[in-house]
Batch of 2 targets.
Target 1
Amino acid sequence: MLQGVLSRAPATDAAAAAAMKAKRAAASPGEEEEGDGRSARGKRQQLLALGPATALASAAAAEEGPETRGLRLLSLLLRCAEAVAMDQLTEARELLPEIAELASPFGSSPERVAAYFGDALCARVLSSYLGAYSPLALRPLAAAQSRRVAVAFQAYNALSPLVKFSHFTANQAILQALDGEDCLHVIDLDIMQGLQWPGLFHILASRPRKPRSLRITGLGASLDVLEATGRRLADFAASLGLPFEFHPIEGKIGHVADVAALFGSRQHQQQREDETTVVHWMHHCLYDVTGSDVSTVRLLRSLRPKLITIVEQDLGHSGDFLGRFVEALHYYSALFDALGDGAGAAEAERHAVERQLLGAEIRNIVAVGGPKRTGEVRVERWGDELRRAGFRPVSLHGSPATQARLLLGMYPWKGYTLVEEDACLKLGWKDLSLLTASAWEPADDAAASAPTTTTS
Amino acid sequence: MDTLFKLVSLQASEQQQQSASYNSRSTTSSGSRSSSHQTNASYNYYYHSTSSGGGGQYYYGQQHQHQHQQYYLEPYQQEECGNAHHLYMDEDFSSSSSSRQHFHSHGAAVQPPTSSAATPTGPTPPLSTSSTAAGAAHALFEAADLSFPPDLNLDFSSPASSSGGGAASSAAVGGGGGGRWASQLLLECARAVAARDSQRVQQLMWMLNELASPYGDVEQKLASYFLQGLFARLTASGPRTLSTLAAASDRNTSFDSTRRTALRFQELSPWSSFGHVAANGAILESFLEAAAAASEPQRFHILDLSNTFCTQWPTLLEALATRSANDTPHLSITTVVSAAPSAPTAAVQRVMREIGQRMEKFARLMGVPFSFRTVHHAGDLAELDLDALDLRDGGATTALAVNCVNSLRGVVPGGARRRDAFAASLRRLDPRVVTVVEEEADLVAFDPDESEESGDTEAAFLKVFGEGLRFFSAYMDSLEESFPKTSNERVALERGAGRAIVDLVSCPASESMERRETAVSWARRMRSAGFSPVAFSEDVADDVRSLLRRYREGWSMRDAGLDDSAAGAGVFLAWKEQPLVWASAWRP
């Protein structure tokens, strides 16, 4: 099976890379947010000119097959999104019930994805009436949501290789960067349940020379959840005989006052000299992680960690509404499709993942451009931003790529593709890139002995 | 199965190829569009400004008597080209286009406008100050929190949906218990609507919108469906919203989907079968009594005024076939399918045709001489000409039963005592028995004996909203616990409830066919029409009890006779101690 994946890879990878380039171009037209409605009309007409979707609008729905239903849903979703883009909210409202009736959170993949886009459009229309787009931030809600997201994330981890892909590649990059050092400090900007770190602990413990110190600083919205995560990780580290310290920070990285605040006590400030500091961050659009992208970049620049590992979604958050909507529909159709391929009997788990994670992300994107919901000009591609801030890419072509291939080979899923592009690794589903993993180090770091592009 | 995915791929690439051309096209005509924005920019349709006298009546409260058509169409015509989608008076905003600021501004003005809040509404505070900003332990936190109504203390812990029975869960059903944040927020929001506190309405609706989901837990669903109703009310678009919802449902309803949902509901919840078993028991006993008393062979006729798709009758046919000794008597069923005049009926006619065929086939199988007739009736039941139904097809010896399962509420409550009049018209049919099954909720907001005024005052709105919330909370809760987590049939039932909620919250009472009443009210109406209650026999009670044993814990039967409030008639089906369905039988 592994052989099959490896020999098949080059052809599909090339196609995937081409598709991704095309998609980037499609997403890029730099229109003003919520731009002129007429462009939306024109765009939609082009979108619909292709398919037979419009002709089917009045067919008796109940008797038709799933394919036709998918086409009708697509047509309705695009019409509704276009109405929202043109600020014709009454028209949009008229379409929502039909979408809800045709869609289903428990149906085929297209019906499922349409259910969540329909729900997101419904929320978006009301937001537009209210003139209020910002996300809720309530303390009691944060804890309850963290727990729900945690449960869903564990299911996601079991149902799809996406989460493991993120963990494996980042862990491999961190191990490479460690390169003989034996004091490690990981700063996880959004640690959640810390699912990623047992894997790293395991490898560290199995090396001939165990680390002298191992510390994780985890950021998150709820201190309760953070502390529970810390306890679990400490237990696991203890079972492996690893030294371990956990430092929880309730809040967002962009609100951390200065680098010193990331290191806590004075003892840790001194310790800092000996440590290899690594920053890790897995992106999503469930909620805003940074608080402020600008402050985050500033902080990372003054922190100068040995390595920054990032896993980003290949999905734009900005741009005009309709373009963003179509790109997101494309992206999440692929994700739902991929999830359906692997879910099998785990219907309840699949629903949890789709509703708690993917559905919530879709709402954020359809609202006003991503989890911050401000329409603020933000960092769209973190790689570019880090490059400007004085970091350079560290190639993931060696052992991280091998690990990722091994991972994909271990599972029965057939639609996933892995592409090595520049220094990054891209995981895709049927030619659409879903995630990009990359690693960064300070560009002027003389000590960085490893060449930036090695291919094994 | 990945149609949507493929299709989107195709179209996304097409979009990319052609994106250059639409950009150039769009710039040529932007001037005319921006001018049309300005002409309507100041329009608002929450309520009329104070200059219209009376200080802001509800839109339809003012106009629906005389301008029935116009009152909901007008805002939409205005809105077609405008961008003033605010629910509120303009003074709440610095300008009519303030919602656009949220797109264009950089970091500022993200929160809903708050004029009264003394605390500053800036971006999220820096980490170092967050602990002091939070205040009390369970208070609200972070930047956006500063715009929250400070008097709300919400509990977002997961609702205790899995634990059965007990005092704790009955408290939870009643609302106000742990984790019932939706009821709390919705009631606050309804109060703010009634008080015309538009800023608070906006804050609460924003919170509800962020929290609601039709596919989430019970609280999220309640938030979703009641928010839909409030939204329709505030935009004075209730009837239009309702007809859009009904039309969408109608287009996507087939015999199979209807049957699947009805059967699944019966299989997993006693909600509908409770009434069927009780009513069938009473009908059968009165028929057999009539047959025993008569010297010649009897014919039986059931006038079925229930929109329950005949799911009630197979068990009655079966019982009739086994209980009658020699010759099974002839049974006729006339089923009246009524719908609001505006409601689409294509799906219902499709479904009833199929049901008629199946009923006849089943009767042949059971050996019951049988005839079946469907009468489609547009409008409410009070307008049905009962005399024209020709119910005495077998002559004077025919024993007549009238079956009203969830049908009396279909008589629109009106000033002219329409419900009393309807009960009296049933009495004139001289039936052996009338069975009445109704859902227990007090959704008629005025006493028709004392007032002939419209039920659309703010006090009426608040009463119906609160009682509707109580009732549908319990209904949704019972669905949640009875159905599997991933059930399309449950979603269909919830959507049906969602339509009823839109009707109750945003449509004039004088057009509503969802106005349930309590057992006390119905019993009073039946008595004053000249009926007296028939107690269910021990056999029937046993049947009901054994029925309930087939379902999960939480359901129970309660004798209304022990409870003064029900005026001593009928029995209740209760979910977690809360009576929700009432079944009763009456004779002249």
Target 2
Amino acid sequence: MYSATGINCTPMAGAVVEDVKVLGLPLIPFVIRVLIALRLKRVEYELVEVQIAEPKSEILVKSNPVYKKIPVLLHRGKSICESAVIVQYIDEEWSDGSGSSSILPADPFDRALVRFWAAYIDDKLPAPVRALRWGTEAEKAAELAGQIRQALGLLEEAFVECGKGKGFFGGDAVGYLDIALGSCLGWIRALEKAKSVKLLDAEKLPRLTGWAERFLAEESVKGLVPDADEYQKFYAAAEARTSATPAA
Amino acid sequence: MVAAAAEVKLLGMWASPAVRRVEWALQMKGIEYEYVEEDLANKSAALLRHNPIHKQVPVLLHCGRAVTDSLLILEYIDETWLETPLLPRDPYHRASARFWAKFAEENCREATRKAFFARGEERSEAIEQLREQLQRLDEELEGKKFFGGVEIGFADLAVGWLAFWLGVSEEVAGFTAMDAKKLPRFAAWMDDFLRVPVIRDNLPPREKTVEFFSYYRDQQLAAAAK
């Protein structure tokens, strides 16, 4: 278990012990991706929580001067930024040669395919998810929910081509695309609860629904994707802080 | 091993920087390919079939399978044809190349697009933002001839569109973002990049490109005004 305050607890059996730090927050999907990837490779890490609202933590600004965003991976005195770049770095840095714990598939076409869909997720999900969460107009809400459902609908179809009949986008095991989408599941479930809207609809998206259950039950994922209630607590606290602040 | 020409097809458009980027990579590796010019106002059935979601060029067809998105195509090419590697071997340097490629593709393209279309008050802010992005590239070139080091690599191919199309954008839209005195490393890189034979011999004709983007800009501005 890795506590959110950044203290290593019990090391995993057969774990790689190096000095690996992740600047991030446990609720952010892009950060969760990195943590899952490290777990898959059995790499011990320290999650260092940082301030992402102004004034941003100094360590964040220093290690990611271009974007000043989380996640950032700190390894061997270097910083690696952007979740997609970090996950591929993790895959390549801790590659065991036999490919058995590969996050990306081996075949170049399959690699292009999962990268395509991961980029699609980043292009289509975060904006409407955020807008829906914080927005107030009902009409706009319906439109945003529609956009999210449409994107998930395409991913439902993509599951067939990518998964090749197996349980995950990565086939038999959790892979790059599972991580890209799976890290967003808490967000999606929280949104469904907060806005009383169906996004990952079991009837319309049976493959994704089954996949989501399997994904969240995976050893490498357990405990890393917060459930809807944890997000709710966080949002409620954020809202309380906003309303407590006197108007400018 | 050079692939048989029939195996590799590139759907492209002559003025597109994303398409050229793929051609540079194919040429660097000595891969033979068939180029198919797309009329983007009248997209072919092939383009719509192979890129149904984004309906954009470039699309690389290899043994009948389609790869879309120019940076993904570059990685595909690098992983399929192993001679003349585009990405370095070391995982950290690979991460760095991917980071700067993403930066060039997202931040720089967006900033250029904004400056290209901005008018009135928004314009000077857009130009300033573009300058900031170029400044970052200039800083990254510290101690290096190319982003890839001694020779061009993945990041250079990703950033490379700026070497030609930034000047075109500036000319068409009538602004100046690039300043060789303030960004000497980036200025030198632009010159060196354009001098690389594979790049130099694979650029669209400048005047024709300026004409094309001029027309494109007028069209887009007129459509936005409606």
